[in-house]
Structures are given as C-alpha cells and as structure tokens.
Design brief:
Length: about 700
Amino acid sequence: MILPTRKLLPLAFVSLFIFFALRSPAQAQQQPEAQPPIYLGTAWYPEQWPESRWDADLTLMQQAGIRFVRITEFAWSSIEPTEGVYKFDWVDHAIADAAKHHIYVVLGTPTAAPPAWLTQKYPETLRIKEDGRRDEHGNREQFNWANPKYRELCRGIAEKMAERYGHNPNVIGWQIDNEYAAESYGPDVQKQFQDWLKAHYKTLDNLNERWTTAYWSETYTDWSQIPIEEKAGNPGLLLSWKRFVSDTYRSYQKNQLDVIRANSDRRQFITTNMMGWFDGYDHYTVSQDLDLASWDDYVGRGHLDPYRNGAAHDLTRGFLRKNFWVMETQPGFVNWAPVNTVLDKGEVRAMAWHDVGHGADAVSYWQWRSDLNGQEELHGTLIGADGTPVPVYSEVAQIGKEFAKAGSALAGTSVHSQVAILHSYDSRWAINWQRHNQAFDPVTQIVSYYKPLREVAQSIDIVPPTTPLDGYKLVVAPGLEVISEAEAENLIAYVKNGGHLVLGQRTGMKNEDNGLWPEREPGPLAELLGGRVDQFYAIDDKPEDTVPVTGIWGDTTSKIWAEQLSTSAPDTKVLMRYGRSNGWLDGQPAVITRKVGKGQITYIGAWMDDATMLRAAKWMAETSGVTAALGPVPMGVDVYPREGEGKKVFILVNFNKAPQTVTLPSAMRSVLDDKEVRTVSLPHYGVAVLQAK
Ligand code: GAL
C-alpha cells in the first residue's frame, strides 16, 4: 500500500488502533486482514443486482484473490433518487458485506453520471457540445464541468458520502468522478475563459503582442471578443484554452476533494482514474492535489504493446513520482474497439505483471459481471450474466494467488531509473495542432526514443521538464517543442552539473505562448549546444523522398522529419550526416553533440528507425554511464526492477512467442515458486518474480 506519505502512516496506525480498541468483538471479526502490498480488484455495481446475490459475488471474488472493489462511481440515482433524499443503506451493506470477504472498498463519487431529476431541474448543468447543442440525459458525462450549480451538487453528494464513509475502516480510498474528458463550450464557459486570460495576461496589449494578433487582424480590443478554439486557431489561443481546461478540471476536482479531505481519515487516498496517453488536459496540473495517480489501461484491439503501454505506465508514475494504481483494465476484451479481440490466454496475466513491474500497486478489472442491460452489455467481465465465471476468471484467480505470494517481496518497493524522458502536454498539443507532417505523432516520437532506451536501461522515468533532474545520468527530450525559460534553465543547469541531455527533433522550437523562439531550435538551448536547426523538412514516405543518414550509429534513412543542423561552436561535433536527398540536406549535420564541462548536450535532427535508435541509445548509455538494471536478457523479455529499503526485485515477462532462458547475474529467489535460481526459463507470456539476495 503506497498511499498516504510515509509521515502519515504512523497516524494511520494510531487511528486504526483506537478504532479496533473501541469496537465490539463482533464488529472486529468483520475486519479485513492486513492490507495487501499489491491489490487485485474489480469494478462492482451492486446497485444493479438484488442484495440476496451479493454474497455469491463476493465469495467468487474472494476465491479469485480480489482484495478491493470499486463501487458507486456511477450510482448517483441509486444514492440520491430524488433531490435531497439519500439512500445509503445499500452502500452500507455492500461495504460491510465486502469486509466479510476481506475485500476493501474504493468509493467513486458518482458525478460522471448525474441523474435525470438533476439535469431536468437544472438544465444549465448540462454541457454545451462542440456543435453548440446542449447534451442530454441517457449517456454519461453530460455535465458542464465549469457550471457553479453542478459543482454545488457534486460537492453536496461528495460531502454526504465522505461524512458517512470517511472513517469507515473498510473504505481505503476515493475516486473522484470518472475519466475526465468532456468540456463544455457555451457562453458561460467562454466568459470564464476570458476571465482566466485576463488573470494571466493582465492587459490586452500584452496578450495581443504575445499571440502576434496583428496576423490576420486578430487583434482584440475587448476581452469579450476572444473566442474558444479547440483545433484550428491562433496557437497562443489554442494553448491558453488547453491550460484553462486543465485548470478547470483541477478546480472541478478540488471542489469534491476538499470536502472528502475534510471529512475523512488521512489514510483514505483520493485519486481519479486517468487515461494514459489521453491529452485532453494537462495531467500534471490535475494530479497535483491527489494522493495517488491511477489510470485505466485498455488495449482495445490487438495485443499489449509493452513499449507504448509501458511508457503510459511510466508517464502515470511520473504524475506524482511514485507508485500508482491501474484502476481499470480489460478482462480479455472491451466493447468499444473496431474489433473487440480478446487478449490471448496468458496475456492478461502477463499484462498484470507488466503493470506491477512498471510501479502499479493495484490491478483492477472492469468489470465484474455483465450488466443485464445498458450500453456495455458485451464488454469483457470476470463472471457472465448468469453469475458464473467466464474463462478468464481462472487466469485472474491465478494472478490473485501470485499477488498474495509476491506481496511481501514487493512491499515497500518502487521504480528507480537512471534515465528520464521529458514529456509535456504543451509540446504534444503544439505538435498535434501543427504536425507539418501528418505522420508526426508526438506519442509515437516519444516511444521511438523510449523503446531503445528501455532495452538498454531496463527502466525509464517519464517526467515533466520542470522536474529536478540531478539524480539522472541521462535525460532525453524527444520532442519538447514548447519550452519556457524556466524549463530551459532547469535543463541548462542539469548539463552544467554534469548530466547528459539529449534533444530530439523539434525541441526548443516554441516559447510558452506557443510562438516561435527567434533563436530557432533549440531556442534557449542553442547557445549551450553550440549549434542549431537551420531548417526542418517534412519527409514523405515515397521511395524518391528517402533521406540517407550516416555516421557513428551506422547507415540508415530518415523518415517523417529531418532537420538540417549547423554548428557554431568549435567544439560541437557532428555524429551523423545526411546523404544525398533533397539537395538542402545533402552532406549536412543530422546529429551534433558538445561536451560542456563534465556534462554533454546532444541534438538529434533526424527521425530514424528502431535499429539505429537502438545503437543511438547504446551510445547515450555509454557516454552517460547508464547500465542495465539487471543485465543482458533476450530481446522481447521485459525486465522490471522494483527497489525498496534493502530490497531489489526483478519481474521478468517473456513477450516472445518462443520460450526464452535468462541467465541471472547472481543467484536469486524465485518468489512465485519459492526456490533459488540462477537461470530462468520463460514460456510465451511466462512470468518470473525474482528477489535479489
Ligand atoms: C472506461 C470507463 C468504464 C468503462 C470502460 C469500458 O473508459 O471508465 O466505466 O466504460 O471504459 O472499457
């Protein structure tokens, strides 16, 4: 359990002690056993089933090793069927019944699904969609997140729930709302946005200058003239809107968070379930008030991509820079992909261990049982409409056994990396608004660096550019297109203190208003680099557009994007050059590097293939002293190190179709079969949990 900070744990123990001391023996018997270090969980909707059925459900859950259920996150109409009339009995019973089965509870505030009476009585709480029409009841997320009346009602229900369950020993945490994703675009929100702009830019002259509104006569003479733009618009306006959206989600969340905090034990965590690479808002902004980051990890169609998905885990771990929860994941398949393929037998288990390896302290399946009616009738579940297990149940039960077995080895461990990849929402948005080459997907770009670096280092942190970087041997910024002065200073200090900073294509192109830095890329880092981008070129995927690149990482071609670099300092070295292509790039530098005191800064201007990037990653590791966390393993075997005080655990998962053997650098305890091993044999999707001595 990673939840409250270490400082708060003693407090939690004291309150637990007082609680137990005051309870009658009968009550005490219902207490769940000690909280597990790694939780298996599921989303349970008791409000859809007669109470007489619950015990059967909870028995099956207990048999599968499930240790928490998340409930109530869409249950507003069952908790408050009419305004001001609350029905908590069923929630009381669900929590108490779960406790009898040693199952803890995470309570969701039900605000993602306002009841019909609410939106009928307060239609102003319904969101205005992008097409200008008001949303209506019948789905979920139909609310306006900026509406004061809606916030008042959300606060009300959250407060009532917290008053009732904030000290319930079987409730371990809170999830606010569900997957924030739907903004509102009406005049009320526009006015709030304009006020937000005024608070940020102070004067219209300042805003006009920083957005270069003289362009296309965009100049504003009154705040009320400023529109909302989501996709096409002045880049400064677009970025400001996204920042406003992020701040509004934060305040929407804080509105509920404050009343939960005020009425609950500190041991109860507060989270919200986020969505991996989803970029609707700045997750760093929204996370900062939470105790725990969590996300919903769905593969959808096809199979787990351990790199892209692994990077999403590392991204989530970076929100609060500590372990996180997988609050939802698919028990085999979903219902919303173009083809809702199933994960292979064994893949659900491999994925669960991949999650834990990346720092998840909980893996929870959505959902427990098929709804008899409702939009998601066909989604994967653990038990069917008839109330008996579906095939994947037994695999999840195996995970339950294994989590219990590995719990003590993993207790108190987390992920520590030598390498950081810098990520910012500003940059991803900026690239997406002006991709320049439709193939330039900023997440694909990040993963093109993440993948080889993970092969080499076996562990990566993904953090924002404002993070203190001292502890890292290598910091890589794949596409930090937007960079503020403060962020640039952080990176410059890192290099001056002896770090190796590697910049990828488009880094340092734009300032914090999403306008161009006049120095050209990498903007405020150009002086330190002793070089810059003279010009960037979008590369089409036709054979005649091929751009050869040659140098210390071998011979390859550049795709999607190629930047023509130049050096201005005598000690800036060229590592790779372009071959003959469009004439402009011929013979020009593609990768340059410069040693600065004990530090180093490198700029990579060409988007290159995986094999070349692997050689590049090896070079980055060698020049920075980065070593593999475990040591050499066959390609396709993922290594996940987790460390705690005096403890080192390695989780291995084989994603190859063929079985693989890993020779360990020293003898270790194989936790799942409790024996000492020097080599590990892993079938397809095989898992090993190893504790170093
Ligand atoms: C999630 C959502 C769940 C459920 C699930 C289905 O995005 O939070 O409530 O709808 O998708 O895959």
